[in-house]
Amino acid sequence: MSDTINITLKVWRQKGPGDKGHFETIPVKDVVTHMSFLEMLDTVNEQLALEGKDAIAFDNDCREGICGMCGCLVNGIAHGPMKAMTLCQLHMRKFSNGDTIAVEPWRARAFKVVKDLAVDRSALDKIIQAGGYISANTGGAPDANGLPIPMEIAEKAMDAAACIGCGACVAACPNASAMLFTSAKVSQLALLPQGRPEAAKRAINMMRTHDACGFGNCSNERECEAVCPKEIKITNIARLNREYIKASIGSDVM
Amino acid sequence: MSNWLTNAFSTSIGKKLLMAFTGLCFIGFLAVHLIGNLTIYGGKELFLSYVEHLHALGALVTVAEFGLVFLALVHIVMGLTLFLQNLKARPVRYEVKKAAGGRTIGSSTMPYTGILILLFIIFHLVKFRFVDKTPVDVNDFTILAATFSQIGWVLFYIVAVIIVAIHVSHGLWSGFQTLGLSHSKYMPFIMALSVVFAIIVGIGFGFIPIYASIIA
Questions:
Q1: Residue B196 distance to chain A (closest CA, Å)
Q2: Which residues pair with A25 in a beta bridge?
Q3: pLDDT at position A1, please?
């Protein structure tokens, strides 16, 4: 079995937020199939640097699939063709010799392209700042079993908490909605007793901020669930909807 | 004016709640409308007897009609608002975009099938509701027979009904999801029901023009 392939990259190049941008076709020879997608981009960048050209800007950090920094649309699918996988965990062995691979940045009104494939996702941080936390005063450590939490509930909260905020849900959503992200961040707290005191305020404020950031409206297309590297379920969106209804009609939050 | 109620319905979820509630109301209407229309298979007498019994409700029918118009206005205005907002949420489209496996024909065409259904309903009302039924030789059966004796109208109605079925195939479960009515025990059933109901609507309404053209 051959350990190297030749591919053609069609990569999005954009000088800055104001630039229109275009696809650049770069033939890449002898790609070692054991490399990750990002390592492949590294070698392309080395090649570009040697030619005196501008390197392709792309976000990345841990390269272990847990930080949420990386991500692009690869051949039209967020994080590439593999299920439950970030772009850094996608290996070149998943591609064939002679493939043309289109690479595009996340696109949404709320996500400005900084350069090439790097995108400003601080809108997601704004949603978190609007209520994705609990206010716990310091004091004596509570008794470990003082708050009984059923195993299934803890599991659901943990599943929601697996969200790494990569933005693939927004990128894949035909409406550029961040409902899966917001719902995961609301759910992880709403499910646990520690999150209940601020649940109403959280659901309403995070939703209002979601809208103010310019994200679209969820139309239950389920594309987000299909691309999420952490397999966050849309049952979280239904929970957010419930939390929102409860908060709107059953709490004092205006 | 800003109070808790307008605040609640002005967010993304709020607008969708209106969409889901009105949409599910229309699904209920479709079911009732279909059950009534099925009397056509019992022949002219049964069909006219159903029409007569329905109109015997008098003011109740008028109230129901105004109710439906109100629901339609909310559904259409909210639907268009959400559609335009969603277009605005991605000003630069992708050059290469593939479905990752979540979308269905129904879900990806909702705004378009919705607009087509609106156009169909206008034709449908002009054809069957806002028509002079005072002459003695004109009744709902003769209108039905006259319409579906023309192959063009038969095809028009079949296509329209298929579009309604496609819209409903996503709308039913989507409405439940938006209202937060999702549970691991019941959601698979609701999703299956969406498809089954769409097929029932498609076949149930779709064969009426064909049957009417045969007996006409």
A1: 19
A2: A10
A3: 54
DSSP A91: B
Alpha-carbon Rg for chain B in angstroms: 20
Per-residue pLDDT, B1 = 53
In this structure, how many other beta carbons lie within 10 angstroms of the beta carbon of residue B4?
14
pLDDT tens-digit profile of A162-195?
A: 999 999 999 999 999 999 999 999 999 999 999 9
Cα A236-A238-A244 angle, rounded to 5 deg: 100
Nearest-by-Cβ selection for B107 from A211, A219, A240:
A219
pTM over 0.80: yes
CA distance A221 to chain B (A): 5
For residues A234 and A169, state if they share a domain.
yes
In this structure, the answer to whether residues A184 and A219 fall within a common structural domain is yes
ipTM confidence: 0.94
Query: Please, what are the averages of pLDDT over each run of 10 residues along chain B (216 residues)?
Result: 87 98 98 96 94 94 97 98 98 96 96 98 95 88 94 97 98 98 96 98 96 88
Token code pair at residue B168? 């409903």
Contact yes or no for B102 and A221 at CB 8 A? yes
| B109 reaches A (C-beta below 8 A) | no
Q: Are B82 and B16 in contact (CB under 8 A)?
A: yes
Q: What is the mean pLDDT of chain A?
A: 96
Rounded Cα distance, B99 and B94, in Å: 12
- CATH architecture of residue range(s) B12-91+104-215: Up-down Bundle (1.20)
| Binary contact (A216, B187; C-beta < 8 A) | no
Domain containing A51: what range?
4-104
3-state secondary structure of A206: helix
Chain A contact present for B13, CB below 8 A: yes
Q: For residue B96, which residues of chain A lie inside 8 Å, CB to CB? A: 10, 73, 75-76, 102, 104
Domain assignment present for residue A117? The answer is no
What distances in angstroms separate CA B207 from CA A95, B14, B34, B158, one per listed residue? 49, 38, 11, 8
CATH number of the domain encompassing residue A78? 3.10.20.30
Decide if B100 touches A, using CB distance below 8 A. Answer: yes
- Identify the pLDDT of residue A138: 81
pLDDT score for A2: 67
Average pLDDT over residues A20-34: 96
Question: Whole-angstrom Cα distance, residue B104 to residue B188?
Answer: 16
Residues in B touching A244 (Cβ below 8 Å)? 11, 13-14, 180
Residue A150 scores a pLDDT above 70: yes
Beta strands in chain A (DSSP E): 4-13, 22-32, 73-74, 77-78, 100-104, 112-115, 118-120
State which amino acid sits at residue B125: L
Same domain as A127, residue A231: yes
Within 8 A of B80 by CB-CB distance, chain A residues are: none
